[in-house]
Design brief:
The structure is a single chain. The chain is of the alpha/beta class. It has a domain at 147-292: Rossmann fold (3-Layer(aba) Sandwich). The protein has helices spanning 9-15, 32-38, 116-123, 128-144, 176-181, 188-198, 210-213, 239-245, 256-262, 296-306, 321-335, 343-353, and strands at 21-25, 43-47, 58-62, 76-82, 99-103, 165-169, 203-207, 232-233, 248-251, 266-269, 282-283, 308-311, 318-319. The strands form two sheets. The chain has a seven-stranded mixed beta sheet with strand order 2-1-3-4-5-12-13. A hairpin with a 6-residue loop joins strand 12 (308-311) and strand 13 (318-319). This is Capsule polysaccharide biosynthesis protein.
């Protein structure tokens, strides 16, 4: 078991007060080792939903998974998800993340209830030294061109005639962040049509989600007709390259909106992602619970320093965000944009045995 004494202070604060015994419900077996490493010093028992009883006091669930029917009404619930500086490669390819979140209130993409992240952003005191760390981390992320998945070509040429360019990033429409964070608009093409209608003179880019491009997730409703409502579909270009070349980013709930904020871009949210409602975005649907106004590095401190855990792929220990960034950069340099020869074969088996959802 991972030694809790080796956890950095950021991680210790996130893990403090958790029970000694945690029941991890219905996680696939391939995730067991990394979940153990996320909870150093704790005893983990892996069970199925039907095994939960009134005596099961603390449950670990993935994302917005339903609380099992047998659970006590006062059972403690911990929700686990991928973090925001994730990997070099796609989650749909089962690439293991560097960053994880553990939430005791809800989960960050569910706008319907307060999460630990929302509580932090709404109430935390951001000391000057924490903001210095946030600024340094943000500047390094931007200068290094890092994003959540770090895939795609690293060059995009902005058309010379385009005086105002808007990027619309697509999402996997079955994703929980749309189910629990989108509002009036629920589909990528509804978003794209709304952006085109509101900005008839702009040069509009549409970027399909990389999981969809890899054919590991299904196309959204009418997504194969995206060209009707945009000027260019940019499927294989990396997010960082696009963000540097555009003026605005319009999203449902995509993490690309947060990545755009890091780069000083104007962001319009048609849903209610975790970074909306704090005075940094243009929000089509205001978030009534979020009344605090944040500076950018306060948002960064909450989202990247205080909320997630970072787990080294090299030594299997919890590390600081700065150490995780070092590892992510080294990983990206090793891959250097190359696609391994076996990847499409691997994806064939993923589609066949896991399916395209």
């Amino acid at each position: 078991m991972t030694d809790f004494s080796g956890a950095p202070p950021d991680a210790e604060q996130r893990l403090a007060g958790l029970p000694e015994v945690l029941h991890v419900v219905a996680f696939p077996r391939w995730k067991w080792p990394v979940i153990r490493q996320c909870f150093p010093g704790r005893t983990l028992r892996f069970i199925q939903a039907e095994d939960v009883t009134q005596q099961t006091r603390c449950l670990v669930l993935w994302g917005r998974a339903a609380v099992p029917q047998g659970a006590a009404t006062d059972a403690r619930i911990l929700r686990v998800e991928d973090g925001f500086l994730r990997s070099v490669g796609l989650g749909a390819d089962l690439v293991r993340p560097l960053s994880w979140v553990i939430d005791t209130r809800g989960i960050y993409y569910d706008a319907g209830q307060e999460s630990d992240l929302e509580w932090l952003l709404g109430h935390a005191s951001f000391a000057p030294e924490l903001l210095d760390r946030a600024r340094a981390l943000r500047e390094r992320i931007v200068s290094s061109g890092l994003t959540k998945y770090n895939v795609g070509a690293q060059a995009w040429q902005r058309p010379h005639h385009a005086t105002h360019v808007i990027l619309v990033p697509g999402q996997v429409e079955s994703d929980a962040s749309i189910a629990f964070g989108a509002t009036d608009l629920q589909h990528n093409m509804a978003l794209l049509r709304a952006v085109r209608k509101a900005n008839p003179e702009a040069y509009v880019l549409y970027k399909p989600h990389p999981d969809v491009v890899a054919r590991l997730r299904k196309l959204g409703q009418d997504e194969d007709h995206a060209q009707r409502w945009c000027d260019e579909v940019v499927a294989g270009i990396g997010m960082d390259a696009l963000l540097h070349g555009v003026d605005e980013v319009h999203v449902l709930t995509s993490l690309a909106g947060f990545e755009a904020l890091l780069r000083g871009k104007t962001v319009t949210c048609y849903g209610q992602p975790f970074y909306a409602g704090w005075g940094l975005t243009h929000d089509i649907v205001p978030h009534l619970r979020r009344t605090r106004r944040l500076q950018l590095d306060e948002l960064v401190a909450g989202v990247l320093l205080l909320y997630p855990l970072y787990l080294s792929r090299a030594n299997k220990r919890l590390v600081t965000p700065e150490q995780a960034l070092d590892e992510l950069l080294a990983w990206k340099a090793r891959v250097a944009g190359k696609t391994p020869w076996w990847q499409e074969i691997y994806r064939f088996f993923l589609r066949r045995f896991i399916g395209v959802r």
